[in-house]
Amino acid sequence: MPSRPVGTPTRGTTNPNRLRRMDRWIAATLAGRLRGADDPVAVDLGYGAAPWTAVELLGRLRTVRPDAEVVGVEIDPARVAAAVPYERPGLSFRHGGFEVPLPGGRRPLLIRAANVLRQYDESQVAAVWAGLCGRLAPGGLLVEGTCDEIGRRHVWVTLGPAGPQTVTFAARLGSLDRPSDLAERLPKALIHRNVPGERVHAFLTAFDRAWATAAPFAALGARQRWTRAAAALSDAGWPLTDGPRRWRHGEVTVRWEALAPGG
C-alpha cells in the first residue's frame, strides 16, 4: 500500500441530505448483496469537510442490514480529525485516498465516490475506476457520480470488477424543465461527451423528445410525465434496467454500453 494517500483533496463541499437520491438507490439495488454479505462494510470516499454523508449512508444501509458498517475515507487529515467525534459503532473515519485503506485487509461491498472525480481529467478516470474496483469484495460495487449542491440533480455510474455497468439519472422532478437539464451533472467520464455524435447526447436528445411527447401527462404531475417518458424510451429500444417502481422515484437507469464514449 502506498505510504501516502493517492489522489488530491476535493473542495470539500457537503450538505445534509445531498446524497439522499444515490443512497436510496444503493439501499434498494444492493439490498440482496447486503443481506447475504459476510462483511457488510461500505466506504464513503472523499466525504468532504463534514461527515454528514457518511452518517446518512450508514442510516440508510441499516434499513436493509442492521449491522452494516460505513468507513469514511478522506485525503485531508484535518477533515478526518473533525469527523472523529461523530464515530460510533459501525461508523469510523480514516485518512486515505483511492487506495481505500481499510484495516485487516477488509474489502468493501460498496465504495461510494460522489463529487470526487469532477476535478480530474477525463483521461484519468479509467485508471481510478480500475483501482477502486480492484479494492472491492466479490460482488461489490463502485458508485461514482456527481450532484448539485443540495442533491436535486444527480447522475452516477455503477461499476463492478469487470467495469462500468449502468448509468443512473435521478432528480427532484420539479426542478427540471427537461431531462437534458441533468447533463450538467454527468460524471467526468461523460460530461465532455454530450455533443452530437456521442451516445450520451443521443440518449438525452431522445429523453427530451419523449418528455415533450408526454407533455399531456404533466397535468397529472411531473412524476407521471417522467414515467411515461421513461416507458417511451424503453419502447424505443433504449436498454433501461429499471421500471416504473424506480421511475416513480425520479430515476432512470440505462446500461453503460448505450452511453459509453465513442459515438
Would you kindly provide a written description of the structure presented here, covering whatever features stand out?
With 263 residues, this protein is an alpha/beta fold. It folds into two domains: 20-171, Vaccinia Virus protein VP39 (Rossmann fold), CATH 3.40.50; 173-238, no CATH class. Helices cover 31% and strands 19% of the residues. Strand 4, helix 5 (122-133) and strand 5 (141-147) form a beta-alpha-beta unit. InterPro entries: SAM-dependent_MTases_sf (IPR029063). GO terms for molecular function: methyltransferase activity. This is Class I SAM-dependent methyltransferase.
In terms of topology, how is this protein built?
Elements: H1 20-29, H2 31-36, E1 41-45, H3 52-61, E2 69-74, H4 77-83, E3 91-95, E4 110-114, H5 122-133, E5 141-147, E6 153-160, E7 163-171, H6 188-191, H7 199-213, H8 222-235, H9 244-247, E8 251-255
Parallel strand pairs: 1-2, 1-4, 2-3, 4-5
Antiparallel strand pairs: 5-6, 6-7, 7-8
Summarize the structure.
By secondary structure, the protein is α/β, with parallel strands linked by helices.
